[in-house]
Amino acid sequence: MEFGNSGSLSEDGIHVDMDRLKKGEVNLGTSIMAVTFKDGVILGADSRTTTGAYIANRVTDKLTRVHDTIWCCRSGSAADTQAVADIVQYQLSLFAMTNGKPPTTQTAASIFQEICYSNKDRLSAGLIIAGWDERYGGQVYSIPLGGSLHKQSYAIGGSGSTYIYGFCDSNWKEGMEEADAVNFVKEALKEAIKWDGSSGGVIRMVVLTGKGADRHLYLPDTDYKVRHT
Amino acid sequence: MDHRPQAWGRPRDDVYGAYDGSYLQSGGPKTATQSPVVTGTSVVAIKYKDGVVIAADNLASYGSLARFTDVKRLRVFLGTSVVGFGGDVSDMQWLDRHLNELAIDESYDDEPSPSSLLSASPNKGHGKLNAANLHVYLQKLMYRRRNDFDPLWNQLLIAGLDAAGKPHLSSVDLRGTAFTSPSLATGFGAALAQPIMRRHAPTEEAAAALTREEAVGVVQECMKVLYYRDARSLDRYSIAVVTKEGVELKEDEQLERQSWAFAERIKGYGTQTV
Amino acid sequence: MTSIGTGYDLANSIFSPDGRNFQVEYAVKAVENGGTSIGIRCKDGVVLAVEKVITSKLLKQGANKRIATVDRHLGVVYSGMIPDGRHFIDRARDEARSWRDTFKNPIPTADLASRMGGYMQAYTLYQSVRPFGITAIVGGWDSELESGVDGEVGRGPSVGAGGKTPGKKYGGPFLYMIEPSGLYWGYYGAATGKGRQAAKAELEKLDLSADGESSLTLEEAVKEAARIIYVAHDDNKDKDFELEMSWISGADGPTKGFHQEVPKALREEAERLAKKSLEDEDEEEEKKEDDKMEE
């Protein structure tokens, strides 16, 4: 396996996602995020997948279900993150069956982390896990490249996230109403899409609450104003 | 016969031409060695009369990005020792879980501990592993992992008490190198904090003369200097005082008494005065 | 159960024509010879106690513990064949550890009971093994607090997570008893071993009823447990015994969610009360007899 050696993590720590890719691999250039709010969590992502400068898919769905109300945002290698998400989805459905109760977000985060940590030298996967469950409500966990696990009130990831650290830190409020939280995610992703060449296309969101999973879709040709579906 | 083992069993070069090794892997030796991704910076600690003071800031960096600002890098073991972690955060979490399991192993043995130093811990009467034992254990663990070419990318400080109830402070790094000293610091702290701490505790005797307040003061001073001069540091930090009464850990401290106002007097970079 | 196997008791893997597994029934006999073990689940914790029969004066007092810690929040006590019990505990510790390794969380008491029930049941199926000669009582406290992932760093929102279902309580005290057949149930109070009948009769008198609302406190339960072991010991009077007790409370109780030996002072106090209660009973009986004499 050959890795590029042009990336210099110690200098910018950002473009490392690109350099960790295997040759010719499809990259989720990506802007992803997940936020907690009053009734649960919201996941959001752009829809651009690139190989180099070519957009391999302009309507990608980077928000992946691993259990009814536990989802993840994927960044890094498309192949790696899909494989990991598939394994976790299987494990969680098994957990629900054998234990007779739905898994918590912690359970999902644990399984994700174990895979990412023990295969750290083979994977390029930056994941955000967000879930809602009856006991713990909405929770967000972030698993960056090395496979560490971070509990956060909101998380951003992917190459586009570097452009919105300031925006998010300034505009973040804890315990927002759903509409405000949706707006926060949308405005943040709009900025990321605007400045990051590897992010673009539509904005997808999933709202996870006691009522289940609710999908949102916003399109660039209507300036992300109108909610489709 | 060719006496070189490398040539044994190979077609003779003079008959068949030079050996074509092109099908063999060309990428050099296989490496399981990783490099750190999400990292914590310095840990500093100093011994005093009754125990040890140890501190680390709450930042986990991603390259130069200050990515996670609420990462607690001081971990309590059995309510009697503190391990401070510098380096890779995922390996820190692995070690933290490993130490948690070690602590559970200790609780299997219900014999009350002969030592009274565990009185303040919720594990009262359980843990017999003191900080000195823990240091030896971690040294062996780190050295083994480096021999597997799969090191845990951390530098650790272990603070607590030894079997005699005397303050114990030691370090282990990712190669399994171990030290003890009246004061210790990892990462940037080794260059910036150690000289300050050595001024106050050059010897074991000098450290044993320090009061708790003095030791805390020295550590706070070190954290301040590190915040001034370490570009991967943060002004929120955790600090723990370990004594025979147990561990007092504060995890969300703010650096105080910083000095910046003198910037007003600095104009230009040489001759300029306005 | 006095029937004889008539050839159907030679191996696990053979049923008798009337649908019994004699090996399992014999294993129950081994349990019935062992020192009494009990468990009490009350509103703020669980108490485990055992009548540790002293087999030799050469054994050190207080050594060779019979109640074991399986994980921080889990304890096990058993009656029957001690080596079988030790193996049971080894396995329970492995199960608790493997749960922690996969889910990075403490194993819930119910899941440990389920896994150990399954393990014991497997020893009733095969020609090559015999059933466990023990009945085990598993006590645990599942944290009522919000627990994260072992080793996690960082915090969620300072205002707490949103969207929780309000008013619901989680965690609490749990008590299970697992028999040689692998059968297990959850109990308010459980007893096994030689004195189980007397112990069960005493347990049934306690107010352990409705979920978490029992009026018995943990400390009272410790004293009741001591008394019940002393009552149960009456059937076994010719042998010396030591009382061994452990307890588990919630995070705001005396053990902070950990399974621990009952402190010496409290145990001795409980023993004193237990002995006194037995003496009082004897006196009462004597009195009654005295009354009769006078008549």
From TrEMBL, chain A:
Q: Key word Hydrolase present in the record?
A: yes
Which keywords does this Swiss-Prot/TrEMBL entry list?
A: Cytoplasm, Hydrolase, Nucleus, Protease, Proteasome, Threonine protease, Zymogen
What are the positions of the active site? T30
Instruction: Name the SUPFAM superfamilies for this protein.
Output: N-terminal nucleophile aminohydrolases (Ntn hydrolases)
Localization, per the record, is:
Cytoplasm; Nucleus
Q: What are the GO BP annotations of this UniProt entry?
A: proteolysis involved in protein catabolic process
Provide an example Pfam family for this protein.
Proteasome
Lineage: superkingdom: Eukaryota
**Reaction(s) the record says it catalyses:** Cleavage of peptide bonds with very broad specificity
State one molecular function term (GO).
threonine-type endopeptidase activity
State which residue ranges cross the membrane. Answer: none
The entry's cellular-component GO terms read:
cytoplasm; nucleus; proteasome core complex, beta-subunit complex
**Family matches, as PROSITE patterns:** PROTEASOME_BETA_1 (PS00854), PROTEASOME_BETA_2 (PS51476)
Q: How does it assemble?
A: Component of the proteasome complex.
Q: What does this protein do?
A: Component of the proteasome, a multicatalytic proteinase complex which is characterized by its ability to cleave peptides with Arg, Phe, Tyr, Leu, and Glu adjacent to the leaving group at neutral or slightly basic pH. The proteasome has an ATP-dependent proteolytic activity.
The similarity annotation says: Belongs to the peptidase T1B family.
Q: What is the designated name of this protein?
A: Proteasome subunit beta
Instruction: Give the organism, scientific name.
Output: Podospora didyma
TrEMBL record, chain B:
Q: Which GO terms describe its cellular component?
A: cytoplasm; nucleus; proteasome core complex, beta-subunit complex
Q: Which Gene3D superfamilies match?
A: Glutamine Phosphoribosylpyrophosphate, subunit 1, domain 1 (3.60.20.10)
Q: Share an example GO biological-process annotation for this protein.
A: proteolysis involved in protein catabolic process
- Please give the CDD domains that the UniProt record associates with this protein: proteasome_beta_type_4 (cd03760)
Please provide the record's keywords in A-Z order: Cytoplasm, Nucleus, Proteasome
Compartments annotated for it: namely: Cytoplasm; Nucleus
Major site of localization recorded for this protein: cytoplasm
* Domain of life from the UniProt record: Eukaryota
Q: Does the keyword tRNA-binding apply?
A: no
Concerning its family, UniProt says: Belongs to the peptidase T1B family.
Q: Which PANTHER family match?
A: METALLOPROTEASE TLDD, PROTEASOME SUBUNIT BETA
Function description: Non-catalytic component of the proteasome.
Q: What is this protein called?
A: Proteasome subunit beta
Source organism per entry reads Podospora didyma
- Where is the organism placed in the taxonomic lineage, from the top? Eukaryota, Fungi, Dikarya, Ascomycota, Pezizomycotina
From TrEMBL, chain C:
Compartment(s) of residence: Cytoplasm; Nucleus
Naturally occurring in which organism (per UniProt): Podospora didyma
According to its UniProt record, which protein family does this protein belong to? Belongs to the peptidase T1A family.
Q: Which UniProt keywords apply?
A: Cytoplasm, Nucleus, Proteasome
Subunit info? The 26S proteasome consists of a 20S proteasome core and two 19S regulatory subunits.
- Chain intervals for the UniProt region annotation (Disordered): 250-295
Q: Which SMART domains match?
A: Proteasome_A_N (SM00948)
**Could you tell me which residue ranges the Proteasome alpha-type subunits domain spans?**
8-30
Q: What is this protein called?
A: Proteasome subunit alpha type
Basic and acidic residues: bias regions = 258-278
Q: Which GO terms describe its biological process?
A: ubiquitin-dependent protein catabolic process
What's one GO-annotated cellular component? nucleus
Q: Name one Pfam family in it.
A: Proteasome
| InterPro entries linked to this entry | Ntn_hydrolases_N (IPR029055), Proteasome_alpha (IPR050115), Proteasome_alpha-type (IPR023332), Proteasome_asu_N (IPR000426), Proteasome_sua/b (IPR001353)
* Feature: compositional bias, Acidic residues: 279-288
